[in-house]
């Protein structure tokens, strides 16, 4: 089979035990008969071309349908916008499907490996290599997030003024999006390792190891989320502390000028009988008195260690 949806196909395996690998690139206009010619069960065909998919695994009619998510390395794409890969696997055929313009780098790497002579004895061997490559890239992306967070924490330890708060928010969002797809992927691999009748115990053990790797990645993403929360809490605490300090200073200034404001208000009333109206030195006396009151209040605050 070779049409405009088939990116490549290989006959793999060893003598007496071959299996075929076909990789397709599809879009919304891909005709349904393309999948029918590959003898894919009708119950699976809709899942293979679905617009939105989450990681899952289904055993049906002697084969396994599994959907995976991987880091998006396509041009102008965000890594957390994870690429969907659909796979239909039997003991003698593997069909992998990508979306147009959202191809998976790990598939291209395996294709290159086949072209260089790498031998897969069984479809599960091919699947295990795919999982390793997907897992390595997820690990690298988590490490990138971790390094970025280390830099932000280092800046925060020196001065919160140097912290780019939006960077921490972006890291938290990216970690949350990755966790959203990686968590069900572990469950899908667990189901695959238990329900696939045509894989050996050795293959099942290897796939469970990949599921355990995903569990460690989930723990790392949760730690990243908690670290970003701590940074944001520290940032909010710093802002609140500064606002509190400014309000405290304003309170002290208000406490000093409150009695002075009372005096200016009293002597500023335009009524008869106010003392000092006819005294030429009354203004000087009032200013000296107010200054002495301000100094006394200031010294009292210092004595009380209010600042």
UniProtKB/TrEMBL annotation:
The chain crosses the membrane at residues 247-269, 281-301. The keyword Protease does not apply. SUPFAM superfamilies: CorA soluble domain-like (SSF143865), Magnesium transport protein CorA, transmembrane region (SSF144083). Keywords: Cell inner membrane, Cell membrane, Ion transport, Membrane, Transmembrane, Transmembrane helix, Transport, Zinc. Pfam families: CorA. GO terms for cellular component: plasma membrane. The keyword Membrane applies. It is a multi-pass membrane protein. One of its GO terms (molecular function) is cobalt ion binding. It is found in: Cell membrane. Belongs to the CorA metal ion transporter (MIT) (TC 1.A.35) family. PANTHER family: CORA FAMILY METAL ION TRANSPORTER (EUROFUNG), ZINC TRANSPORT PROTEIN ZNTB. This is Zinc transporter ZntB. It comes from Pseudoalteromonas citrea. The lineage of its organism: Bacteria, Pseudomonadati, Pseudomonadota, Gammaproteobacteria, Alteromonadales.
């Amino acid at each position: 089979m070779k049409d405009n949806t088939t990116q490549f196909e290989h006959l793999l395996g060893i003598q007496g035990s071959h299996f075929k690998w076909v990789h397709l690139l599809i879009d919304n206009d891909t005709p349904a008969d393309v999948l029918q010619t590959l003898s894919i069960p009708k119950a699976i065909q809709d899942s293979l071309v679905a617009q939105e998919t989450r990681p899952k695994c289904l055993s049906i009619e002697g084969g396994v349908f599994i959907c995976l998510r991987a880091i998006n390395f396509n041009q102008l794409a965000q890594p957390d916008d994870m690429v969907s890969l659909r796979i239909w696997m039997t003991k003698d055929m593997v069909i992998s499907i990508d979306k147009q313009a959202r191809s998976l780098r790990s598939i291209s790497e395996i294709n290159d490996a086949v072209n260089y002579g790498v031998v897969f004895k069984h479809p599960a061997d091919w699947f295990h290599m795919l999982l390793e490559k997907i897992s390595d890239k997820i690990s690298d992306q988590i490490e990138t997030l971790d390094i970025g967070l280390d830099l932000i924490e280092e800046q925060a330890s020196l001065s919160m003024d140097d912290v780019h708060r939006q960077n921490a928010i972006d890291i938290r969002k990216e970690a949350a999006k990755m966790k959203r797809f990686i968590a069900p992927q572990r469950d899908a691999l667990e189901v695959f390792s238990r329900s696939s009748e045509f894989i050996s115990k050795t293959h099942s053990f290897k796939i469970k190891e990949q599921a355990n790797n995903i569990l460690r990645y989930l723990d790392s993403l949760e730690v990243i989320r908690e670290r970003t929360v701590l940074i944001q809490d520290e940032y909010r605490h710093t802002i609140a502390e500064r606002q509190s300090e400014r309000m405290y200073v304003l309170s002290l200034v208000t406490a000093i000028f409150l009695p002075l404001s009372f005096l200016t208000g009293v002597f500023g009333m335009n009524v008869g009988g106010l003392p000092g109206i006819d005294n030429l030195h009354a203004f000087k006396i009032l200013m000296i008195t107010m200054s002495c009151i301000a100094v006394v209040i200031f010294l009292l605050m210092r004595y009380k260690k209010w600042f």
